[in-house]
Design goal:
Layout lengths: L2 H17 L28 H25 L1
């Protein structure tokens, strides 16, 4: 991507961000306590097949990282 294309792309993104600004500021009034937070690998889905696939992908990723570390050692 050349400089002109990057500048044009950045301009479009900036314009879209300005157009999507809420009329009133967002106020967060609830925070999830640490003990209620879940692990990053936990999938929130009503689709059991999708959850199973996500879990398999996560397992494969973890095994790949472990194998790479074992290879380096």
């Amino acid at each position: 991507m050349d400089q002109a294309a990057i500048k044009a792309y950045s301009s479009v993104i900036a314009d879209a961000a300005e157009d999507s600004e809420p009329a009133t500021p967002v106020v967060y009034n609830q925070v999830i306590p640490d003990e209620e937070r879940h692990t990053p690998h936990e999938v929130y889905s009503a689709d059991p097949m999708g959850a199973m696939i996500q879990n398999e992908i996560s397992s494969i990723k973890d095994a790949s990282i472990k194998a790479a570390k074992d290879k380096d050692e």
